[in-house]
Amino acid sequence: MADLVRQYFPGLPIINKPRDSLTPERGTLNIDKARRLLGYHPQYPLETGFARYIKWYQELATVQPDLFGEA
Questions:
Q1: Helix, strand, coil: what percent of the chain each, to 5?
Q2: Of 25, 19, 62, residue with least CA distance to 54
Q3: pLDDT tens digits for the chain (71 residues)?
Q4: Residue 50 burial (CB < 10 Å; 0-12/13-18/19+)?
Q5: pTM value surpassing 0.85
Q6: Cα–Cα distances in Å, from 23 out to 4, 17, 20, 46?
C-alpha cells in the first residue's frame, strides 16, 4: 500500500511506526472471510480501486473545497 501511495503522492513522507502494546497483532489482511460469509467479490484489484478512489477524492476536493477547509 505504501508503494501505491508513493506512486500518487511522491513527495509525501510515509512514516512506519512500531506497533504499540494496544495494537493487536495481526497477519496479512485478506478478504477470505467476507467472500465466505457475505459472498463478496471485489470488482477491482487494489491498485485499480485505489487509483479510482484517489481520482474521485481529488475531483471532490476541486468541486467542493469547503469540505476540506480550503474555502
A1: 50, 0, 50
A2: 62
A3: 889 889 989 999 999 888 888 887 877 778 899 999 999 999 989 899 999 999 999 899 999 988 887 55
A4: middle
A5: no
A6: 24, 11, 6, 24
